[in-house]
Amino acid sequence: MRSISYNILIFFTSLFLGVGIFNVFSVNESTGKALVLTNIEEPGNLDFDFDASNERHTYTCGDETGETNFKPVLKAWLAGVRFNEDIYCSETLKLAKAFSGANISLSEIDVNGDSQMELAIKTQCSMTGNCQLFIFQRSGKQAKQIFRDRNMTQLFGVSAKRNLGYSDIWTRDHGSWNSGGQVKYRFNGRSYVPNSCSDYEYQVTESADRKVAHTNEVATISPRPCSTMLAEFR
To answer: Which residues contact 147 (CB under 8 A, 6 or more apart)?
Structure first.
């Protein structure tokens, strides 16, 4: 349990530093309970002295209009290059020096239990930590895209449920400091498609004098039609 005043102080300090504070937490997909991890910065959030107004004059990393070039990283990955869970420029594959939508963060996950790791790429991140998420699978000498989120993603993971040998994947986006949307995706034989959607919210309890407020450790999950939730991101 943590106070709202403490959370607000940390949140705005983090935005000032250019670090997405909500990346401090992972979430148990079945219970919604937050688990504290080490602070992992999002691809966009780097360089404490970064001045957004001067970004194009001081640092660029590929296309800033919403498209990221995956060719360099996929070519290196298929060739056997192993990447740390760090933040890279998508064009040069060098460690990122400043905020850029075309920065990428990489992680490897096994979505079908064959011990062959798939490559998850988060990119086009906002300052709040919401990103686009893509997952690629090796297919011979090529990389096949099997997943792209239909909303935005801050946190993601694999579920215990499987279909056609592939684990379900869940994603969460950050709406406000204590709430957002969650989407579960299921493999249909070719790629992942939305299977169920919901809102999540960590309830707030205020003290009698309204000076201190706490959030519950377990989020309230409210199912919502995917047709309405995902329409907001089209």
So the answer is: 111, 120, 133, 134, 135, 169, 185, 191, 192
